[in-house]
């Protein structure tokens, strides 16, 4: 029995990583094709039918590229930083339930790797470590643009993490649990939470874009000011690690948004896991849509928006939810 | 027990690394290793909320601010050690360390401790347990600490506020001319 559990766990981990890597590859292709569509051009469509094999070609190119290291770089930290970025990005997804529990061979299989009673906080703990990848990468490169990118990343992510945490608190108070599986089960009985928590959802989504450094919050790698920000000096697979981490973070933010506000795997007719992926795909489309539409923030506006608007707004919504949940009203 | 041993070694390496490392950024990294090792200690004690809070607050927020400052101030990697500004620091520190360690040893021998209470209180360190402690009997202290920290934060903002800009443009012009 014990052995079976371990085998099951290993299978789940391998599957999760495979899904995330596949998700990364085709989110990137989707993004490039959609950006092409938004900008009235074609995008990559030469490799395979409709560009379907483009990610494989990109992967091969990345593997074969020379791995550069600047002369003055801090060698250990320079190598460590992309690993941290990728590792934290992958581990957050371990607590997200991809579907309802399945019963096979008399076994109940949960579609998440771990189901801790405070799953949401564990996810936050891992994702809060992701910023080290950017800061350390920027510092270790010993390049002024990289350093500025790393410093911007740390300031931005710290600022927006607060509002994000407050936005999520409303869900925890409403459902009375921080377990992601139970949050979905609550929504099965009481309806999806996006409507009662609409303010929290909007704040969560905005901060989610900022936390993943996507346009319009991509100041750490603003190419018109900082060359490529914290990953200016990286090439080959180390650069690819940063890239993969960014896209997987996008998938993670979408997955948590779906779990908290849009009923996770719930939905009629189709199997639960398909519903989950459909909802995540919709979120990913919105991410790409926003990137194609909005220009980048100016740095002071970014800070003002985070501290002077999002944080108070999240706090007010949080207090409102508290009043409502406690039954004072 | 094996897990405890390994973690203890990792935590010690982290702690020693903080003071031995030459680069401030490396010191910060060792401190993060130490913090994460402590978080895993909490998980072994099944205090999962404490563990998550430890990582979110210390590793995820405070150390990021540390790194922010450290990377900003030590932007150029300089392998050569700066000369000590105060002379005789090492000797003083060594003497003080020996005195403190000796004192602790004496106290330990004179007052052999009672057996440390084994077993943990109910709900130790999980969400409900922490909530009961913070919002139950200790709420007054929590509120007091929160007020104190808020006062400190506001105080720093007041002390560091930029000099007030002059509203009158003519006065500013005169000032520039003089």
Provide an overview of this structure.
The complex is a heterodimer of chains A (329) and B (178). The termini of chain A are far apart. In chain A, strands 1-2 form a two-stranded antiparallel sheet. Chain A has helices spanning 2-38, 54-64, 75-92, 119-129, 131-140, 144-175, 180-190, 198-211, 223-226, 236-261, 272-293, 299-326; strands at residues 102-104, 107-109. Chain A has one domain (62-326). With 329 residues, chain A is mainly alpha-helical. In chain A, β1 (102-104) and β2 (107-109) form a beta hairpin. The radius of gyration of chain A is 20 Å and the shape is globular. The longest helix of chain A is centred in the first third of the chain and has 37 residues, at 2-38. Chain B is mainly α and 178 residues long. Among the domains of chain B are: 1-75, NADH-ubiquinone/plastoquinone oxidoreductase chain 6, subunit NuoJ (Four Helix Bundle (Hemerythrin (Met), subunit A), Up-down Bundle); 123-162. Chain B contains seven helices and no strands. Chain B has helices at residues 2-20, 24-44, 48-73, 89-110, 127-135, 139-159, 169-177. In chain B, α1 (2-20) runs antiparallel to α2 (24-44) and α2 (24-44) packs antiparallel against α3. Chain B is extended. The model of chain B has no long low-confidence stretch (mean pLDDT 80). The A-B interface holds A 72, 74, 77, 116-118, 121-122, 124-126, 128-129, 131-132, 135-136, 138-139, 142, 144, 147, 150-151, 154-155, 157-158, 161, 178 and B 23, 25-26, 29, 32, 39, 48-49, 51-53, 55-56, 59-61, 64-65, 67-68, 71-72, 75-77, 126-127.
Keywords:
heterodimer, A: 329 residues, mainly alpha, two-stranded antiparallel sheet, 12 helices, 2 strands, globular, B: 178 residues, Four Helix Bundle (Hemerythrin (Met), subunit A), 7 helices, 71% helix, extended, quinone binding (chain A), NADH dehydrogenase activity (chain A), membrane (chain A), NADH_UbQ_OxRdtase_su1/FPO (chain A)
């Amino acid at each position: 029995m014990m052995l079976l559990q371990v085998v099951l766990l290993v299978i789940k981990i391998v599957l999760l990583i495979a899904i995330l890597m596949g998700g990364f590859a085709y989110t990137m292709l989707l993004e490039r094709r959609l950006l092409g569509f938004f900008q009235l051009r074609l995008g990559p469509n030469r490799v395979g039918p409709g560009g379907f094999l483009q990610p494989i070609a990109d992967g091969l190119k990345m593997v074969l590229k020379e791995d550069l290291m600047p002369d003055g770089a801090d060698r250990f930290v320079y190598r460590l930083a992309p690993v941290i970025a990728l590792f934290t990005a992958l581990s957050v997804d371990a607590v997200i339930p991809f579907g309802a529990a399945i019963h096979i061979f008399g076994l109940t299989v949960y579609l998440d790797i771990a189901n801790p009673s405070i799953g949401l906080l564990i996810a936050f703990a891992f994702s809060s470590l992701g910023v080290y990848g950017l800061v350390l990468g920027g510092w270790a490169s010993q390049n002024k643009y990289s350093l500025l990118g790393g410093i911007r990343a740390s300031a931005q992510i710290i600022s927006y993490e607060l509002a994000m945490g407050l936005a999520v608190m409303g869900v925890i108070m409403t459902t009375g649990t921080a377990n992601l599986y139970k949050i979905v089960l609550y929504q099965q009985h009481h309806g999806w939470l996006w409507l009662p928590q609409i303010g929290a959802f909007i704040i969560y989504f905005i901060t989610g874009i900022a936390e993943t450094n996507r346009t319009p919050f991509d100041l750490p790698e603003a190419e018109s000011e900082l060359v490529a920000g914290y990953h200016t000096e990286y090439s080959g697979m180390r650069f690819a690690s940063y890239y993969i981490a960014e896209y997987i973070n996008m998938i993670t933010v979408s997955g948590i948004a779906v779990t908290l506000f849009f009923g996770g795997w719930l939905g009629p007719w189709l199997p639960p896991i398909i519903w989950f992926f459909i909802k995540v795909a919709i979120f990913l489309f919105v991410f790409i849509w926003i990137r194609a539409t909005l220009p980048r923030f100016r740095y002071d506006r970014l800070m003002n928006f985070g501290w002077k608007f999002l944080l108070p707004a999240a706090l007010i919504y949080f207090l409102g939810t508290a009043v409502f949940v406690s039954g004072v009203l | 027990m094996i897990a405890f041993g390994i973690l203890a070694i990792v935590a010690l390496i982290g702690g020693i690394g903080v003071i031995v490392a030459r680069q401030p950024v490396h010191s910060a990294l060792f401190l993060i290793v130490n913090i994460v090792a402590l978080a895993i200690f909490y998980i072994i004690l099944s205090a999962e909320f404490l563990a998550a809070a430890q990582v979110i607050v210390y590793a995820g927020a405070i150390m990021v601010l540390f790194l922010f400052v450290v990377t900003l101030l030590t932007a150029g990697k300089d392998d050569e050690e700066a000369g000590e500004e105060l002379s005789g620091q090492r000797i003083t520190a060594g003497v003080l360390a020996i005195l403190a360690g000796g004192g602790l040893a004496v106290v330990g021998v004179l007052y052999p401790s009672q057996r440390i209470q084994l077993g943990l209180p109910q709900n130790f360190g999980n969400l409900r347990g922490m909530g009961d402690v913070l919002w139950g009997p200790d709420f007054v202290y929590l509120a007091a600490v929160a007020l104190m920290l808020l006062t400190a934060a506001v105080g720093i903002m007041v002390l560091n506020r930029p000099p007030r800009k002059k509203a009158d443009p003519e006065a500013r012009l005169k000032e520039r001319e003089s």
